[in-house]
Amino acid sequence: MSSPFHRPIAGALLCAMALAVAALAACRKVDRDVPGVGPSPVKTKGGVEMVRVPGGWFAMGSDREDAIDEPAHRVYVSPFAIDKYEVTQEEYERVTGVNPSRHKGATNPVEQIRWADAAKYCNARSRAEGLQPAYDPKTWQCDFEADGYRLPTEAEWEYAARAGTGGDRYFGDDPSKLSRHAWFKENSTRGPQPVGQREPNPWGLYDVYGNVWEWCHDFYAEDYYRQSPERDPRGPQTGENRVVRGGCWDSRPDMCRSAYRNYENPGYTDVCFGKDVHGFVGFRCVKQMASELE
Fold it and tell me: Would you list the domain boundaries of the chain?
């Protein structure tokens, strides 16, 4: 015979579980600054397509037991604009006059890029448009108040990659669908592909996963999430390695996730040395915005 107290207690437990699930769902949902105002496209003076992203709160990281450096935590990101595509070889050469890529192709993403090369491009692109460069070329310190271009913080990159979604990837947790959205180990065995050929994420960004790894501004630290600020985290003050995100054409599906963190020594230039990611690293730029509707 069942206890007369069994059903009320079970009901209370079910209610508590439902509240917990609802709380997690609320955390995973992006809480934007301006309801109804979503990302919108814009073209820069130099002709580069960007997407203006509203600021908001989101759940950064994941709860995967096999990923000790990406614990889920709530983060606020201020509004910014981000390149719609990874910087192409054609665009990089237009601004810098050189193309260091191994896998040549005008519309392929630029690769074989050191972190400082990406920062120099950001400064050059800023100067070409009459904007204030964000990076000090002597120290590589970033002025986040400058109106010029810079590399995305880890938080900005993941916020833009998720595009208001939760889970492993913006299209869901099923890796079998990845080939529609990314060039990775199972469908691109010879190198990077021209940008924009796979399906974009809900905010219109292409090649978020795969093709080439993307440099972020942040130094890498395995335990950074446990001490990072809640609003606009920018990574540790110092470090030996910089963060790269998104995976590349030679990455396993598990690496092509919104929360997956990797890192690389910012000075390596030879694919034969360093970690497995180097040689396949490119980037995209961001630009801070003064308001949601700038």
Answer: 28-288
Instruction: Give the start-end residues of each E strand in the chain.
Output: 31-32, 40-43, 49-53, 56-60, 73-77, 80-83, 149-150, 213-219, 242-245, 261-264, 281-282, 286-288
* Other CB atoms within 10 Å distance of the CB of residue 172: 12
Count of Cβ atoms closer than 10 Å to residue 36 Cβ: 6
Classify 157 as helix, strand or coil. Answer: helix
Distance CA 283, CA 294 (A): 24
Distant-in-sequence, close-in-space partners of 134: CB < 8 Å, separation ≥ 6 = 122, 123, 126, 142, 143, 144, 146, 148, 149, 150
Query: CB atoms < 10 A from the CB of 249, how many?
Result: 24
| Residues of the chain predicted below pLDDT 50 | 1-28, 34-36, 269-276, 278, 291-294
Evaluate whether the domain defined by 28-288 bears CATH number 3.90.1580.10: yes
Model's pTM, two decimal places?
0.86
